[in-house]
Structure formats: structure tokens, C-alpha cells
Amino acid sequence: MTESNNIVSAIPMSLFLVPGEKMPIYIFEERVKKIINQDKPEDTYFAIPYIVQSEMKPYGSLVRITNLIKRNNDEDFVITVECVTNFKLIGFKNGTNKNIPDSAEIHNIENKATIQDRELIEILNSSKQRLNLQHISRVERYTHLITDIIKCVGMTSIDKYDIVATQNIAQKQAALLKQLKIIKAIKFQSKNSC
């Protein structure tokens, strides 16, 4: 996709993914099924505008289908999607009936913010096992994208959204640091209570 705005099919949900993150989604609505190329599902891309308490947020996830599993005599199915990029929502149009899907005008955003904060680097390197980050190489300044760390630690959609939607890199890192401290404390508490 280019730097300009794009109009794509859209499925608004309470789901926010970061690039490289995968998630299964249950599909049952006819108008949603219409956007999926069932012969070549891996060619299907669509926008997921992020919804919180019935409010559509300004950012979302552009995804592609990586797997399609038909169920119940082909009446409904489960797809696995992978986030390609995040986007800023420019406009949204509701489908006119059950046969026409929703569409969104989007502008892709770059997720190139890297880890720079020394305290964040220290927590990441000292707590790799506790945070399930063993497969991440040693973190140094500018070596890892913030979204790569977000993807690995199992954050909620709203927490991921808050970090990605924040424009200031220092604020992104502070929010990530706060989340990692919470996750680390919970895992420490779980380990010691067993």
C-alpha cells in the first residue's frame, strides 16, 4: 500500500493488533463474508477500525488473512489474520445492506519507534524469562521496535492501542514501561502464590 490514503473493506471490532501479531476471528455475518476471497483467502486484506464501548477510535489495524477454516456446512468460518500495519482512520462508511460490507478510508502509519529509554532496556534485559521474551536478543538502544515488544508480552487491545496512538516516543516508552512493570509484578505474584 502506498503513502496516500486507501479505501478498503472494514470490519470494526474491539480488537487492536500490532504488525506481525496474529489472531483467529470467528466470521458469521453475510456482509463480512463478502469481503473474503474464499478461493484465495491470503489475498484478502481489510481494515479493523478499533471500537471501545461503541466508539470508533482514530486508529486501527490493517490485516491480511493467513488461514481460513470453514465450519458448519460452510455457513460460517474462522479466519486467522495477521496485522500488516496500523492506520489512522480518515473516514468510515457503513455498508448499505447485508450484502455490501463497510468500508474505511485509511492512512497507514509507520511503527518505527525504537526502544531508547534506559530503564525500559534494563527491565527488558533483566526480566526476559518472566516476560516471555527469551527469544528476543539482548536489547540495546535503537535495536528493537516498540511494537515488537508489545506483540510479545500479551498486552490487552486497549493498552496496545494507547501506546501506538501516542505520537510522542518518550510517552510511548513510558506507557510500555508501566505495562511491563505491571505484567512483571503479576507474574512474580503468581509465581510466589503457588
Distinctive features:
194 residues; alpha+beta; Archaeosine Trna-guanine Transglycosylase, Chain: A, domain 4; 2 domains; 6-stranded antiparallel beta sheet; 6 strands; globular
Helix content: 25-40%
**What is the CATH third-level topology name of the largest domain?**
Archaeosine Trna-guanine Transglycosylase, Chain: A, domain 4
Encode the helix/strand succession as letters: EEHEEEEHHHH
Number of domains: 2
Description:
The protein has 194 residues and is of the alpha+beta class. Strands 1, 2, 3, 4, 5 and 6 form a six-stranded antiparallel sheet that branches. The chain has five helices and six strands. The chain has helices at residues 30-33, 118-126, 146-153, 157-165, 169-193; strands at 6-10, 22-27, 45-52, 55-71, 76-93, 102-109. The relative contact order is 0.17. A hairpin with an 8-residue loop joins strand 5 (76-93) and strand 6 (102-109). Helix content is 28%, strand content 32%. Helix 2 (118-126) runs parallel beside helix 5 (169-193) and helix 4 (157-165) packs antiparallel against helix 5 (169-193). It folds into two domains: 6-109, LON domain-like (Archaeosine Trna-guanine Transglycosylase, Chain: A, domain 4), CATH 2.30.130.40; 118-189, no CATH class. The radius of gyration is 18 Å and the shape is globular.
